[in-house]
Amino acid sequence: MSFSDPRTRCDRTGAWAALRAHYERAGRGFDLRAAFAQDAQRFERFSQQAPHVFADLSKNLIDAPTETLLLELARECGLEAYRDAMFAGAPINNTEQRAAMHWLLRKPAPAQSGQVQTATNIVVNGLRDVHATLDAMLQLAEQVRADEAITDIVNIGIGGSDLGPAMVVKALDDLRHPAKRLHFVSNVDGMELGSLLRGLRPERTLFLIASKTFTTLETMTNAHAARDWFLAQGGSQERLTRHFYALTTNLEAAAEFGITTTLGFWDWVGGRYSLWSAIGLPIAIAIGAQGFRELLAGAHAMDAHFCSAPLASNLPVRLALLDLWYRNFFGFTSRSMAPYSHGLRRLPAYLQQLEMESNGKGVDAQGAPLPYATSPVIWGEPGTNGQHAFFQMIHQGPDVVPVEFIALREGGRDLPGQHPRLVANALAQARALMTGRPHEDCGHRSFSGNRPSSFLLLERLDPASLGALIALYEHRVFASGALWGINSFDQWGVELGKTIARDLEPRLATGDTEGLDASTAGLLRRLAS
Length: 529
Description:
The protein is an alpha/beta fold. 47% of the residues lie in helices and 10% in strands.
């Protein structure tokens, strides 16, 4: 399937030049406190409801003229046509000649086959395969949930095969099967797996080996170590098939390892978008088939919003335009994530991969160097922990760091009386960043204020809301990448260090430093001695 990219790079549009002039004239000196004083409707104008997510964007350094110019930029860049190409199954991942159809993983099965007759063959056939695999995965998950002999499930993966499932399982712990403990191992450092295995019993443990190719170095190193432990603890090769499942497309390699129970997925599913696929098996085991379907439904609702909402009320687009405004005009280099929810404690780590692996690019989709910055650095911790760590810098440091607060209207099942205190802290931090507090006599106690933030509010942390929140971030990353003119679906930067590591590992045993730079050679000698 051929694909002609419909985009115009952002810096080649008339709106880009108009935004630059507007920034110099009005944006650079924008004051949030004055904006609220002058516009009694500012909160209503810059907040909106999207599926399962309410967003308050009013504490950002924008006004109506700014947003009008940003929306014009999105139109001139061809964002809508590029979005439609993704949802038609076009190979928008041009460096690997692949579609990006993670959204298809949460699309409902059509009630009648005729409902998808106008879609492309890749979408029609893909949807059929998706639901066959989904049904098989959920059936397998229910079997594990019903197996009283299995108490511990260990997911061995890395990157997208770890970050997404681990984040979702922790977020939905209120719904977890009470007799199943979920563990996630990703680091090739043997201390992680070794410390876990010390507390497990082989006859009560199920290992999930999550690797599309079944060749990922870190994952397979840990998988072989887990198999060696299992066999050394009295497990047999025959019993191994009951205690090891593979989430992979490489059935031959899995069978050679000793695994017969496998679930696969497709080359149009990028790793960081894969929690909706068979990679989500640990999620389904934790929360059950119905919970997993609700997770998919929440994400699909956000897909529908992204596809159909006008740009001016399209939440992923509005967030992406803010990202561009801050990165390319204000020059803000990072964004801090502050989820005021213990359940969402792994969300910042998940978003680091989603955003920086997708949009941390220095060339456009045609390989030409970019004259502007792309992805900001994403970092953060749950509130209120972050308040006692890095919020000092956010309030009074020399660099302005936009903050994204996420809060829940309803808390979890445990100790609900503490939830109002938690939410009050989130509201207070957002207000303090905006208003500041001058102190005429003591600079140490003076806060400049006028520091931007966004506030996302969920009713509660349930599968549908979490699915919608994750899809919101996926589409935001897609939209900002579309504006910057990059390919958000490859990750060549992941490969170089891994290639060099394969060369260095045998040298640690031999001490061979031939062809190495002086620094690497010196360190290798110290490690090998």
